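Standup notes
- DV: blocked on the single-chain target, sequence here:
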Amino acid sequence: MDSAASTSTWTVLLPVIIGGVIAAIGGAIGPFLAHLLTSRASKQQKRNESFEKIIEAVYEHDHWLTEKRNVVVFGEVKDLPPEPIYKAVSIALIHFPELMEKMQILNLKSDHYLIWMGNAGLKRLKNEIESLNEGGVEAYRAYAESRLDFLSAGSKYVADRYGRV
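- DV (later): unblocked, structure below
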């Protein structure tokens, strides 16, 4: 083979070899990058869904407390599901430790409201109807303020982290 033929062969083969190497690298790295990007998007979507669930559970708990008050304080007969606050606490514990302090306060104030309900229910059973509501407004107000405080903290968390509410 003469030198001219050898040079012209390399000028033809070199771009093909370089293109093959680029294609091989792209074929090896491309799926990894695609997996990495989809994995991040999937994690973010799961986190968003978890945040929606925690907010939903807080509102469900508020409704549950109203139903519980109707049963315990006023004697309405109704089966109630477990407290939704535990679902919210578990989500916060796993996914949003930054919100746990506010969640614990909300849970505590909810428990204080439940204690008031129990005492009011005892008054109803003793036929002390005139004093049935004593302390109820204060107990509910403390719970409601802690719920609003938690929701505000959640809104601030989303705004700080994602720049939106």
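- Follow-up: The CA atoms of residues 120 and 134 lie 8 Å apart.
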